[in-house]
Amino acid sequence: MGLPCMWGAVAITYKLTCPLAHHHELSARIVTSAVFFVVGAGLILHVRQGLLRELRQMRKVAGAAQGVLLRPLPPRIDGLDVAAAQLCTDHGATVGGDLYEVIGTEHGVRVVMGDVRGHGLAALGTVAAVLGSFREAVHDEADLSCVLRRLERAMSRHLRERARAEHPSSGLEPDSPVAEEFVTVLLLEIRPNGEVWAVNCGHPWPYALRSHVGPSGLRGYVEHLAAGEVLPPLGPFPLPAELPVVNCGHLLYGEALFLYTDGIEDARDSGGVFFPLPTALTDAVWVQPVSPQSVLHSVLAGLQRHCGGRPTDDAAVLVLHNDRHRQHRRAPVGARGTARQATTDPQPTTHL
């Protein structure tokens, strides 16, 4: 309060003691107006600087909180190079309705990619519930199906607590806490030998970024891993008794997985045309070798060009590149089964 009081004292002292303040000539009025203008401008600048300091502090705190919720991924996890990014529709926010995490465990590298209904800051509670449960369950549970059960229980608890908070006067346990709230989830397990296992609850299947040697040398191509049954999203309905864990084949040395949320594919240009993700990926991996960062930057740059700026929905991208030097034979894509037993169901590979 020191500076505002000083400016006020200057204005009062001028008005009471300066002879010009009591003259009615034009020159005296101009001087008086100039003095009060300077005093007013000083007060406004002081208030503005205080608000800017408070805003910077709030952004610093919010950034730290968002970083804990959706923490930055390390560039390398157990032989996998990692790159990730998220675009949030809420101005100033870095975390929205999309979630991802990559954790190295004794069972292999485990990955979650999810998309909460809605977007922006309103979805943060569900993101926190799912990610918190995943970070614990991946170390405790040997099978992906058990990890998914833990996520389902965490989601159910979160929805019940939300319902009680929104309707505290009823005092009853809600039968259907938040009927329209749900989250799509894709769980992956990449084992040390390169085997990829997945369980999918309503989320887009990832793309595999492959490589081969053709007549003109080493070139990349894209393969959509739509490998098995898709379960319903977490929230609206209970999961079935049997949870299929799908064998998606092998991720060989130098190959990568591209995971994303539907904000990427659903992005449209001014004419209503959807973003051509397979084409963008093919362009990104055509010349080998590629890095996760180059794929990430290429796709996001193409997305922003297509939309003419920022997309209208939250979007997240995660790229996992196998940099392990031991190579293994690739199993047929589409082999179905559990983590202990699998049968093959080959799917055609599309060269884009």
Can you describe what's shown?
With 352 residues, this protein is an alpha+beta fold. It has 7 helices and 13 strands. The chain has helices at residues 2-17, 26-69, 124-140, 144-166, 262-265, 277-285, 292-307; strands at residues 76-77, 80-87, 98-105, 108-116, 183-190, 195-201, 207-214, 217-224, 245-250, 256-260, 315-322, 336-337, 342-343. The strands form 2 sheets. It has a 7-stranded antiparallel sheet with strand order 3-4-5-6-9-12-13, covered by helices on one side. It has a 6-stranded antiparallel sheet with strand order 1-2-11-10-7-8. A hairpin with a 2-residue loop joins β3 (98-105) and β4 (108-116). α1 runs antiparallel to α2, α3 (124-140) runs antiparallel to α4 and α6 packs antiparallel against α7 (292-307). 34% of the residues are buried.
